[in-house]
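Reagents: none. Just compute today. DoxX family protein.
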Amino acid sequence: MRLPIELRHVAPRLTTGAFILNSGLSKRDLDEEAAAQVHGMAKGTYPFLDKLPPATFARLLSSGELALGTALLLPVVPTLVAGAGLTAFSAGLLGIYLRTPGMREEGSLRPTAQGTALAKDVWMFGIGLGFVIDEATRRS
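Predicted 3D structure written out:
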């Protein structure tokens, strides 16, 4: 049985999958204050999230990260599917980086010291987009 992933995808899938899985695990039991902080940053960029209570948002974010991290780690999940999920997730994080005041130097994409924690998510976007492009252009 041939797995739906290429050998060249193993290392980036393992590293991003483990990173995201760990992030999801760390958000499972956020206290009210931490959930409110995570929710506050997200709803500042995506106002529709204001309708969700902070604890619900944190629980959904944790579940999404757990699902995405697991999908990246499991070789039975096709790289195109895992890559599309990673691209969408990291695009959402980059949206927060781009739209939150104080994250970037004025008139620049360069992060401030405060913005570095979010700006680093660009590597996940690049990996996810690379997976999608690689799979979409791969010859059968």
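Residues 40 and 54 are 8 Å apart (CA to CA).
Action item: order primers for follow-up constructs.
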